[in-house]
Amino acid sequence: MTSSHQIEIRLNAVIVAVTKEEPRLLVVDDAPTSKHALPFGPFNPAADRTLEQGLRGWVKNQTNLQLGHVEQLYTFGDRGRDTYGQSGSERVVSVGYLALTNEAKPGATTNAHWTNWYDYLPWEDWREGEPEILQREIRPRLSDWFHGLPKTTATAALRQRIHLTFGLKSRTWNEELVLERYELLYEAGLIAEAVRAGRKKFEDPGLGKEMHSDHRRIIATALGRLRGKIKYRPLVFELMPERFTLFQLQRAVEALSGTRLHKQNFRRLIADGGLVEETGSVDLHTGGRPAKQFCFREEVLLERLSPGVKLPGKRRAG
Fold first, then answer.
1. Mean of pLDDT values over 109-115
2. Residue 181 and residue 99 share a domain
3. Same domain, yes or no, for 153 and 168?
4. Does residue 225 lie in a domain region?
5. Which alpha helices (H) appear in 137-291, and where do they start and end?
6. Residue 203 lies in domain
7. Residues 264 and 192 in one domain
8. Helices 139-147 and 155-165 sit at what angle, rounded to 10 degrees?
9. Among 25-39, 80-94, 173-187, 289-303, where is mean pLDDT lowest?
10. Which of 122, 130, 131, 185 maximizes the CB count within 10 A of its CB?
């Protein structure tokens, strides 16, 4: 039997940089919807030997960016996830990738631009303490949603899930549960993408910028993956210049993890891990005393299986 359905395979890229102590994300303006979208390109099976080769190729052609570390995240193929311009017989499947680079101006032929990724997931940024949006908007609305549900055998499990995911009832805030938090907010109908999909419409609490299709879900997947991996792989150095100060390195890790780190504890962890070495040069543009510059010590990759940045203990949520 011949199927009348057509499948379009796209390669979506969550392209990340850290610039001036801020986590940055490359997005494009989606003209039909007036929303930001992740850059994407079609997979050409005749021309591209691998999916990653196809991704690197169109990123280079469209943005003139040279990617560093690239890894596949997940395949996003839910029905109805990308309905613009489709007929009922079409299905868009996106293979999501996390890609790290240094920020540079995209090519002139693209409408891509850089933005802060916490614009889309503002509850994930704890660098200045617990985000106000959690206390003011998210927790009360989650509570209203939960208590408005019919009481079933699944109610207790859902309560535990909310407590665990959002760090309630003396639970710690786990910075890696980014996707789990996004999906719970979606399930509760508290973000615009859920309303767009026909879930119960709450008064819009302004929980981050809406994106095209399910691209915020892809971003949440990438952020959770990156936060987990920097603890056991030296990925943060893919985002650093060749020479950097320890303060710059700390601020980059804080930007990715969404937490503030104790200066001396962080430096002790870096020293104990043997991750960096002095270059013999100093940075004279610190606004204070000149600071020693360091570089990543590549030999650590041969010495240990998990040479990441071990973060200090997690903070406790309310």
1. 86
2. no
3. yes
4. no
5. 139-147, 155-165, 178-187, 192-196, 215-229, 246-257, 263-273
6. 126-208
7. no
8. 180
9. 80-94
10. 185
| In-domain check, residue 316 | no
Say if residue 43 is in the same domain as residue 104. yes
Q: Which residue has the higher pLDDT, 301 or 152?
A: 152
Give the pTM: 0.88
Helix axes 246-257, 263-273, angle to 10 degrees: 100
Tokens of 190: 């508290």
- Whether the CB-CB separation of 182 and 220 falls below 8 Å is answered with yes
Q: Is residue 315 part of a domain?
A: no
Instruction: Give the model's pLDDT for residue 94.
Output: 87
The structure tokens listed for 95 are 């293979």
Secondary structure of 133-151 in the HEC alphabet?
HHHHHHHHHHHHHHHCCCC
Alpha-carbon Rg for the chain, nearest whole angstrom, is 21
Residues 54 and 110 in one domain: yes
Mean pLDDT along residues 157-179: 90
Q: Which of 70, 101, 119 is the C-terminal boundary of a domain?
A: 119
What is the three-state SS of 55-81?
A: HHHHHHHHHCCCCCCEEEEEEECCCCC
Q: Are residues 275 and 297 in the same domain?
A: yes
What is the helix (H) or strand (E) element at residue 93, kind and residue range? strand 90-100
pLDDT beyond 90 at 98: yes
Average of pLDDT values for 301-309? 67
Model confidence band, residue 284 (pLDDT cutoffs 50, 70, 90): confident
Kindly state the tokens that stand for 76: 């996003």
Is it the case that residue 2 has pLDDT exceeding 70?
no
Segment 228-238 mean pLDDT: 92
Q: Is the pLDDT of residue 178 over 60?
A: yes
What gap in Å lies between CA 296 and CA 274, rounded to an integer?
9
**Which tokens is 193 given?**
């993408």
Instruction: Let me know: does 89 contact 4? Beta carbons within 8 Å.
Output: yes
